[in-house]
TrEMBL record:
Family annotation (Gene3D superfamilies): Immunoglobulins
Residues in Ig-like domain copies: 1-97
Keywords: Immunity, Signal
Record's keyword annotation contains Signal: yes
PROSITE patterns: IG_LIKE (PS50835)
Stretches assigned to coiled coil: none
Keyword Transmembrane belongs to the record: no
Organism: Periophthalmus magnuspinnatus
Protein name per the record: Ig-like domain-containing protein
Superkingdom of origin organism: Eukaryota
Length: 97
């Protein structure tokens, strides 16, 4: 677990990597506020630039996938309400017809 300290109004960037191979191209970033359940912030699929932020604001969060085995997640314009646990998870991408 990595602890990140940044000043208010700055940004915090987190990295996630795995050694499961290129088939694990789906990456999920979650946020858990104190006393609350985890919520999915963004879903990324390596090779696609249009990440799915669902109900979260693309102006507040960003995600980047330089390769299938790693990714970054950034919280912009930090406020005290952004204090949370942030998690990443990966899974295999399966094409279904």
């Amino acid at each position: 677990m990595e602890l990140i300290w940044e000043k208010e109004e700055k940004e915090a960037m987190m990295t996630c990597s795995h050694t499961k191979g290129a088939g694990y191209s789906q990456m999920y970033w979650y946020r858990q506020l104190p006393g609350e359940a985890m919520r999915l912030v963004v879903f990324t699929l390596y090779g696609k630039n249009d990440h799915d932020f669902g109900e979260f604001n693309k102006e507040k969060y960003s995600a980047h996938r330089p390769n299938a085995e790693s990714g970054t997640f950034t919280v912009k314009d930090l406020k005290p309400a952004d204090k949370a646990m942030y998690f990443c998870a990966v899974s295999q991408h399966n094409e279904s017809n």
